[in-house]
């Protein structure tokens, strides 16, 4: 008998890969075994040559969609002969470990869910080998039932039979359960159970009330998305006046009625990860404005858990809505609630009832948020469905490098061997609950990855809680400049380890000179960087308030660059009152509570205030996003493809990008013409021009032709588009983010890459 050994690398734990191998082995009369080696799956296959060929082809081509095989190695098999094919018990391997993310309910399970003759008819926890919770129920690896929160639900004989039968869709499916043996659903402080609880919650939602619902990776706060009063009340309770709510829609048909849906968007929306996707609202959308005020887009997802499907469709009398507001069940900045105790304490006052169940959530996973750019994904929040799928690195991190990430939108990263595991989004680190969640998840991941962390990496900022936490670990610690980490993150994602011209357009980060950076051009390699460009520095008067109130930055720019006319201009533009102007002038003059910055994010806020679009932000990025929408409105209405730069930048060849000149130009133009949308567009376009000009100058000096774009401002799809287009037009090779956020949610990956190279340097 001929034989081969296949080592298969990829996400293979918990996606039904071993049962799949067993099935095709039976089909092609192959003897041997499949073993989960932790980092890879080893298949030993013996059989007739033609059968072996067929088996090999099937292995590559028919694998479950979710397995995402990275590579297959093949060696000849020389050991003892096998009589049959079998699945061997998990074995451990010390090199690479895969932690499976959660998978949205599959089509087959959905069909069974609504089949009155099926054992699992209307069962809120239906799942199979191809779908269901994974990461969020894991306690440790390998992924087996006794190491998940399903261990407290012993399988009934029927489920057990399915679990053990090769031909079953639930063969080897760890969370398998049914109405007899699975978790129970209930409304807290009531007698409503299971089906009764679902019926009751549907009624309550249609009465315009707010319900907290325990989901896969945490609690949601939900209400009828077609009921403006309910959504407005939720806004009030959550102290969230305008930040867009994500919505869950019943099906693709509903999405198509309300939003513009391209085939690519549909594929992501309905894929096995089911992220929240930002879609343009249709002009004839009938949804209330309160869901996403001043916003032409809407964050939409489809039901991804059986319970969510049952909330939309259930055989009862309720005439249910087809759109639910589904916002994270948390206090702003805190991590999403995962236990009933947390829910009662933190969001209990935001809702009228709590729908819960007794399957524990071990690890939080918020809904992932993504947009599309040139039909490719643009991750905004990487969590459920995606985290912690590893990113392959060129160099080995050895036993372990821990990168703790930044302060906002924190997500940490553990690199081990050649893999970087970017953990799910946690939250903002000023909140002590987020700090606790970070500590806990780091401990859990280190355990699962069997990582012995030897080096810790944190941000250079002395005031970050993450930096303080990293210091407490009593391990060798290195610090990385914030924007350098952004660029490294983009390089790591793109598997690019040569020199790049890094363009970091960002909010704020601590600079090497102690000022606040955020609009930087960094000539970068994996070991070091040179700051070769920056936005003209301007004062930010008012400390923390300056980050929320763009008029302060705008006034600061006038005071710095047009001191003689600052009073007149701020008055004419109604940027602030006379008293405010006096106060801010004194602050800037005497450097009281004022920092110097080169931040692109703060510049966007300043321009938004200047154009009277948003004088203040009620959430991070608010004013900047509205500036983008204004610019896009102009772009839509005009032939912007023939736009020619209106300013003469030819004499600005230094490292300093004269955004101040652009600012003053816009101020004067706006005072004359009052066309905010046009000015917003010109701002985007000319800023891109400034950036690309700087990149060209750096290329001329350094010979480096690849640009890496990163930083939170590149979530602005117009800025991204304009920069990418202009760079390509000038023959640059352009690297952008796709599956890793351009915002601070991605910097731990860059920190990890730096840590790895740092340890190789030692
Ligand atoms: Zn399924
Ligand atoms: Zn059962
Ligand atoms: Fe940043």
Describe the 3D structure.
The protein is of the alpha/beta class and 762 residues long. The protein has 23 helices and 29 strands. A ten-stranded mixed beta sheet has the order 6-13-7-8-12-9-11-10-14-15, with helices on both faces. It has a six-stranded mixed beta sheet with strand order 16-19-18-17-20-21, with helices on both faces. Strand 2 (31-36) and strand 3 (40-47) form a beta hairpin. Helix 19 crosses helix 21 (676-702). The protein starts with a strand and ends with a helix. Residues 105-106, 108-109, 127-128, 130-131 line the site of one zinc ion.
Summary, kept brief:
34% of the residues lie in helices and 20% in strands.
Q: Mind sketching the topology for me?
A:
Elements: E1 2-10, H1 17-27, E2 31-36, E3 40-47, H2 49-61, E4 69-76, E5 85-88, H3 107-113, H4 157-164, E6 185-187, H5 194-206, E7 211-214, E8 219-224, H6 228-237, E9 246-249, H7 252-258, H8 263-269, E10 276-280, E11 297-301, H9 306-312, E12 323-328, H10 340-347, E13 353-357, E14 369-373, E15 376-381, E16 390-392, E17 401-403, E18 413-416, E19 419-422, H11 432-448, E20 455-459, H12 465-472, E21 477-480, H13 482-493, E22 500-510, E23 516-524, E24 529-535, E25 538-541, H14 544-548, H15 550-561, H16 566-572, H17 578-590, E26 594-597, H18 600-610, H19 622-637, E27 656-657, H20 659-673, H21 676-702, E28 706-710, H22 717-729, E29 733-735, H23 747-761
Helix pairs in contact: 5-9, 13-23, 15-16, 15-17, 15-18, 18-19, 19-21, 20-21, 21-22
This protein binds zinc ion (2 copies) and fe (iii) ion.
The site of fe (iii) ion has 8 residues, from α13 and β22.
């Amino acid at each position: 008998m001929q034989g081969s050994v296949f080592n298969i690398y990829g996400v293979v734990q918990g996606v039904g890969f071993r049962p799949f191998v067993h099935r095709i082995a039976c089909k092609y009369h192959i003897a041997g075994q499949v073993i989960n080696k932790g980092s890879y799956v080893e298949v030993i296959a013996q059989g007739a040559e033609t059968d072996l060929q067929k088996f090999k082809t099937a292995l590559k081509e028919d694998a479950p969609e979710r397995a995402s095989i990275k590579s297959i190695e093949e060696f000849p098999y020389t050991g003892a002969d096998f009589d049959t094919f079998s699945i061997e018990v998990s074995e451990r391997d010390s090199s690479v470990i895969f932690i499976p993310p959660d998978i949205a309910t599959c089509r087959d399970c959905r069909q069974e869910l609504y089949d009155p003759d099926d054992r699992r008819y209307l069962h809120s926890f239906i799942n199979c080998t191809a779908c269901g919770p994974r990461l969020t129920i894991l306690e440790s690896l390998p992924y087996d039932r006794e190491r998940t929160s399903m261990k407290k639900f012993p399988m009934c004989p029927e489920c057990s039979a399915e679990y053990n039968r090769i031909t079953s869709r639930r063969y080897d499916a760890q969370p398998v359960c049914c109405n007899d043996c699975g978790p129970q659903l209930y409304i807290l402080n009531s007698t409503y159970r299971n089906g009764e609880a679902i019926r009751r919650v549907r009624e309550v939602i249609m009465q315009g009330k707010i319900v907290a619902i325990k989901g896969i990776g945490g609690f949601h706060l939900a209400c009828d998305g077609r009921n403006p009063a309910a959504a407005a009340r939720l806004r009030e309770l959550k102290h969230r006046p305008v930040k867009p709510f994500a919505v869950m829609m019943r099906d693709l048909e509903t999405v198509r009625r309300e939003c513009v849906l391209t085939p690519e968007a549909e594929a992501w929306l309905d894929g096995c990860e089911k992220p929240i996707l930002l879609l343009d609202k249709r002009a004839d959308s009938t949804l209330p404005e309160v869901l996403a005020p001043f916003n032409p887009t809407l964050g939409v997802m489809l039901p991804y858990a059986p319970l969510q499907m049952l909330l939309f469709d259930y055989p009862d009398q309720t005439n249910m809505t087809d759109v639910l507001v589904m916002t994270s069940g948390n206090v702003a900045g805190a991590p999403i609630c995962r236990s009933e105790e947390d829910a009662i304490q933190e969001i209990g006052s935001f809702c009228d009832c709590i729908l819960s169940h007794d399957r524990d959530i071990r690890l939080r996973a918020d809904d992932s948020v993504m947009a599309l750019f040139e039909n490719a994904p643009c991750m905004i929040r990487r969590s459920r469905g995606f985290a912690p799928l590893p990113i392959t690195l060129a160099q080995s991190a050895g036993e372990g490098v821990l990168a703790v990430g930044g302060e906002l939108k924190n997500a940490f990263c553990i690199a081990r061997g050649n893999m970087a595991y970017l953990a799910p989004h946690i939250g903002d680190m000023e909140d002590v609950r987020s700090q606790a969640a970070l500590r806990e998840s780091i401990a859990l991941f280190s355990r699962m990855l069997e990582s012995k962390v030897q080096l810790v990496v944190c941000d250079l900022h002395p005031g970050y809680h993450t930096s303080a936490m990293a210091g407490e670990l009593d391990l060798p610690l290195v610090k990385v400049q914030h924007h350098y980490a952004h660029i490294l993150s983009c390089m790591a994602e793109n598997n690019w380890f040569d020199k790049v011209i890094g363009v970091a357009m960002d909010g704020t980060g601590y600079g090497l000179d102690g000022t606040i950076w955020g609009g930087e051009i960094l000539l970068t390699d994996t070991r070091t960087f040179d700051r070769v460009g920056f936005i003209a520095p301007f004062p930010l008067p008012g400390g923390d308030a300056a980050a929320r109130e763009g008029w302060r930055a705008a006034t600061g720019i006038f005071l710095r660059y047009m001191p003689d006319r600052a009073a007149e201009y701020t008055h004419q533009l109604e940027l602030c009152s006379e008293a405010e102007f006096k106060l801010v002038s004194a602050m800037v003059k005497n450097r009281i509570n004022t920092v110097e910055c080169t931040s692109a994010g703060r510049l966007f806020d300043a321009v938004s205030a200047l154009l009277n679009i948003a004088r203040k932000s009620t959430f991070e990025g608010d004013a900047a996003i509205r500036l983008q929408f204004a610019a896009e409105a102009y772009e839509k209405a005009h032939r912007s493809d023939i736009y020619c730069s209106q300013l003469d930048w030819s004499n600005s060849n230094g490292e300093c990008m004269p955004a101040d000149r652009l600012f003053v130009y816009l101020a004067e133009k706006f005072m004359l013409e009052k066309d905010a949308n046009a000015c917003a567009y010109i701002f985007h376009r000319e800023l891109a021009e400034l950036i690309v000009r700087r990149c060209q100058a750096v290329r001329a000096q350094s010979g480096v032709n690849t640009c890496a774009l990163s930083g939170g401002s590149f979530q602005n799809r117009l800025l991204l588009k304009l920069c990418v287009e202009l760079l390509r037009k000038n023959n640059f090779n352009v690297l952008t983010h796709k599956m890793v956020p351009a915002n601070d949610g991605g910097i731990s990956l860059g920190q990890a890459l730096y840590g790895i190279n740092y340890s190789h340097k030692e």
